[in-house]
Design goal:
Length: 289
């Protein structure tokens, strides 16, 4: 390589690296926010911050717990209740209004969103199945649902969910091991009395799942307002017949919670720096050719 071109290439790569490193610096966390299902709202079945368990037979349930389950997982009677998915609705409008008042509309966005909930290995109710398996977490555009027949819809694919909801985005694929840090369940325990009370707490645990920063999901949160469009809905879909995951939506210590960090929207100068770095790299590649 010509020495002059080599020096120019080295200089441009250094500038490009500096620009990209500057643009990639972690964003400052302004604050942390969380919104939970309202205590007792699970049984109400309507309004904001509620939940719904949707069975494959078209019926639904909205009590003190909901279950994501497949058709072959086993309930406390040794039988198997119909497969089911769960929907959660969170009222984030007042949170977004407060953030707009503090930082200015359009000046903030979210990072590291998570869904947290408390689960139990066994439920003393035959509508809930138990077992290890997989499930997916979706954002869905339809927030007008209430607990009732076919509303929300029972769906087995993201496309079917999107057809009903108007739009839906996959946020996570997860595996439930049907265990807690202090205990591993067995089918035999479903037919004994020792699981009906759990003073030690080893049959219950709390888990958090990271959610993808899907643009529609992020916009649903950042554009929410208490007056006009306050709600954000998530949908948990069983993806294996063996899954049996029971989640507290009333009475538990930790009710299903949507949380996220609030970070500033990147300054135009930072974006320009990033673009400049990419342009310099492209120029270097042309020189090398």
């Amino acid at each position: 390589m010509n020495p002059m071109i080599k020096r120019k290439t080295t200089t441009c790569l250094a500038l490009a690296a500096a620009a990209l490193l500057g643009a990639a610096a972690p964003a400052q966390v302004l604050t942390n926010e969380s919104v939970a299902i309202s205590s007792g709202a699970g049984g109400g079945g309507g309004g904001a911050q509620t939940s719904c368990m949707i069975f494959s037979d078209g019926t639904s349930w909205s009590g003190g717990a909901v279950g994501v389950q497949g058709a072959s997982s086993v309930n406390d009677t040794g039988g198997s209740t119909a497969a089911a998915n769960d929907a959660f609705k969170y009222s984030v409008g007042s949170v977004a209004d407060s953030l707009n008042a503090t930082y200015g509309a359009g000046n903030w966005t979210i990072a590291n969103p998570e869904l947290t909930f408390q689960y139990t290995l066994y439920a003393n109710n035959p509508r809930f199945n138990a077992g290890a398996g997989t499930f997916s977490i979706y954002w869905m555009a339809n927030d007008s649902w209430v607990q009732g027949t076919a509303n929300p819809v029972y769906a087995t694919t993201g496309a079917a969910l999107a057809t009903w909801a108007g739009n839906a985005s996959l946020l996570a694929n997860e595996t439930y091991t049907w265990s807690t840090p202090g205990y591993t369940g067995t089918l035999a325990d479903l037919h004994t009395s020792n699981w009906t009370t759990d003073s030690s707490g080893i049959r219950q645990a709390t888990v958090s799942y990271g959610l993808a920063l899907d643009p529609s999901f992020v916009t649903d949160i950042t554009s929410a307002t208490a007056a006009a469009d306050p709600n954000v809905s998530l949908y948990l879909m069983s993806t294996s017949a063996s899954l049996g995951l029971t989640i507290f939506t009333g009475g538990g210590q930790i009710l299903p919670t949507l949380s996220f960090e609030v970070v500033p929207v990147p300054e135009p100068s930072v974006l320009a720096m990033s673009l400049s770095g990419l342009a310099l790299i492209a120029t270097v590649r042309r020189w090398r050719k």
